[in-house]
Every structure is written in structure tokens, then in C-alpha cells.
């Protein structure tokens, strides 16, 4: 089974890289055209793993308290999100309580400006709050840290390239947060460099993959398994509505693990 999964995701990895490169060719006119083609290709990729009744779109998220994000490249909407579309079929209102996760796409995080822009976009998403926790069995006054965490939208930064080492990218992100006094609550959950691995920001012990359940930013070297590891993390976040069962992919990907696990903070 492991060999079959490895072959499948190797092909998917190559296709995804090809689509990103093709977007640069098809959108030669302006940077916005390149970005539009890249986002379309990535959304098409995500739809394979979150098919109908999920909705994959982009746009600005608003919450019930009046806050709003910037425009996010890829949003996975829960099936319970109302179909609030305009005459062109685009979502005119995207509600925080129906967003399962937000993914900001940046092709090259070795450029500090791109990293900073992505971190700022995620900060705006994290400023939003779901109206109530989507978790079952969170008793009043107990597990408050889990309840607080579940009110925020899980947020990813997805890239093709990062610094020569992911540790450098992680430290650049951490420096930016420290220099600007940005709280852990407003920070990214995962940064994915598809050719290298994943930077994970564990904020509650219940979701930490560290052996001692410690919190903070960790670099996970997944090598050839970065793509399935990314999908595994999208399956394991706290969605906007309670899940009755795990995502099917979790049953098949749960056995994979990173080759290295390096704490940064």
C-alpha cells in the first residue's frame, strides 16, 4: 500500500509543479494573470481531495463581529456554508463560520517580501473569529484553550520554493513575529514548501506532533512525502462544523512520518 501511495503522490507532485510552471507561461502578460492562473491550478488540485459538497473558492472572509480578512487565494468552504453567490457565480459573501481552512499561495518564500505579505494575510484571517466552537463535548469552563483555538480558521501558506533550508524560512517568519509583537494566536498554522517540507506552528498540545507534545514552530522534513503530508494536515485541522468521521485520506496517510523534526521556537 505504501508503494502505491508513494507512486500516486509522486505523479501528483509532478503535475502540480507542471501546473505552476504552466501558469507562468499562460499568464505572461501581467503578474496578476500569472497569479490568477496559478490560483486556478491550485484550486483545481484541491478539489480532487475536497470534492462536492465542499466548495473551493477565493475571496474575503467576514465574521459575525464585523471583522474581515484580505482576499485569500484558496478557501475550503464547509458543505454547510450557504450558497451566497453573485450573478457571475462567484461568492459575494464568505462567512467565517463556514470556512474550514484558508490557504495563501506564494511561489517563492525565499523572497522576504513574499513571506511578509503571506504572514500579513494570515494575520488578517486569524483576526476573525467563529461565533461558536465547532467541537463536541467542550464542557463549560473546561478545555478553554482548545475551545479558544477552535474559534480561529486554520491557515496555511503554500509555496513551491523557500530558502535553501526550511529552518531559514522558519526563523525569518519567527523574526518577523517577534519584531512586530504578533501573538501566537495571529500566526500561521502551517507553511508548506512542496519541494522541501512543512513548517508547523503547534499552539495546543492536543494537536502537537512533537513526542513530548511541546508547542511552538517546528520544521518537518517530509522529503518525497511533503504533498501527502500537506493533505494529511488539511484533513486533521478543526473544521467549521463537527465531523462525524475522519476524512478518508486520514486512514491511508496516518502511517507516514517526517524524516526530521526540528524545533525552532
Secondary-structure blueprint of this entry?
Layout: H1 2-26, H2 31-47, E1 55-62, E2 68-77, E3 94-95, E4 99-105, H3 112-126, H4 144-150, E5 155-159, H5 166-179, E6 190-193, E7 197-202, E8 216-221, H6 226-236, H7 248-253, E9 260-263
Parallel strand pairs: 1-3, 4-5, 5-6
Antiparallel strand pairs: 1-2, 2-4, 6-7, 7-8, 8-9
Helix pairs in contact: 1-2, 3-5
- Model regions low in confidence, pLDDT < 50 over at least 5 residues: none
Strand fraction:
15-25%
- Summarize the main sheet: 9 strands, mixed
Number of beta-strand segments: 9
If you average the pLDDT, what whole number results?
Answer: 89
Treating each run of at least 4 consecutive H or I residues as one helix, how many helices?
A: 7
Structural class: alpha/beta
Outline type? globular
Relative helix content: 25-40%
Neighbour order of strands in the largest sheet? 3-1-2-4-5-6-7-8-9
SSE run: HHEEEEHHEHEEEHHE
Ends distance? 36 Å
Radius of gyration: 18 Å
Q: Would you mind describing this structure in some detail?
A:
- This protein is of the alpha/beta class and 265 residues long.
- It is 36% helix and 20% strand.
- It has helices at residues 2-26, 31-47, 112-126, 144-150, 166-179, 226-236, 248-253, and strands at residues 55-62, 68-77, 94-95, 99-105, 155-159, 190-193, 197-202, 216-221, 260-263.
- The chain is globular.
